[in-house]
Amino acid sequence: MKRSILLISYYFPPLGMAGVQRPLGLAKYLFRLGWRVYVLTVKPIAYWETDPTLLEDFPKEIPVFRAGSLDPARVSYLFGRRKRTGTGFRPAAGKLFWDAKLGFAPFVWAKGCRLIEEFSISAIWTTSPPPSLHLAGLWLKRTNDIQWFADFRDPWEAEGPEENSNVWQKRREKLKRLLAAADGVTAVNDGLKNFLEPLAQAGKVATVFNGFDPEIKVSDFASPRKIFTLAYGGTLNAPHNPHPFFKALSRWKKSKGRPFRLLLVGRVLELPVRSWLEELALAENAEVTGYLPHRAARQKLGEADLFLLFLPPEPAYGLNLPAKIFEYIGLGKPVLAVAGAGSAVADFFSQYPVGALCSREDEIVEQLEFYYRQWENGSLPSLPETLRQPFGWDKQAGQLSNLIESKLK
What we know:
Mean pLDDT: 91
Distance between the termini: 14 Å
Low-confidence stretches: 88-96, 220-224
Number of helices: 14
Number of strands: 13
Helix content: 25-40%
Structural class: alpha/beta
Strand order of the largest sheet: 3-2-1-4-5-6-7
CATH architecture of the largest domain: 3-Layer(aba) Sandwich
């Protein structure tokens, strides 16, 4: 009999944006590795963006089941609201209850029990956020003969400035109970793995990076390009604030007078990006596309010579390794990252030569000129296949498959 697994994720297509890529990519390639894969997600919710095209390349043999929920996004949808427009209802995690999606957990448990029995499922994998999804995983393990694997895409705000507060202590105790009960734990980067390990049993936490789909190809563009093109892909918001980079870019433009093009591909959330571009005399260089479906976004980003990443230096973002890095790697161009020196981003850049890391304005200006001169001389390198290949979803699914198989024996 084939190995069987139920992947449980609140975020899954036709929802769009970055959170859906991990369960989507892992499900597709676990199936390719011979697993019987089932997906359980939420019924339609009010959400910022949708992208039904993501399911066009998803194996039709993988059934996707949807459960109800009493969380605010689902309730809003039931009352006729289809689009989420603001930050919405986001209580501080752990202060009153688990998180705003707690109303999904009982429905996951009820639906999951039926699916486990009907399809003889031997393993489940829950991915957070939301953290309360792991609570549903715990319930499923306790009421069924299965192996449960908990996946963490972020640290549940547990590494923030409240570490000595009662909030942190309660949150840590919840984490420890979850980690103790899980048969295996995966984290999206080594920094998050190292954060979780002291709360878990030795050797229980493994890194399974985010990735890119190696089957999605991007058309070649005319080469050499006529203008040096910088590109950012993804949401621009407080955690991904481009203003420090814009200031450095404006300074470089004024001092060097280089022609360039700036592509901003993705949703802008509560930031005056267009005003900043005007104030810093960058509007004439910039193209702000707004949200695009994933395939169209990749195609647009394929026009770039240099990719951009913005992450604040504050400790609250220290364990964040944005998934867009792996999309950039898949597209094969170097990355200029603006992030803190002690962050997970810095650690990743020190291990894998995918580009340059900057934390000060003068460093950004220097790197812009460096990459421009390489581009001008026709010597701007693409990332080698040996660097790109390990981050395909096929390889990351292989790591997850090996981890789960080791527990099923």
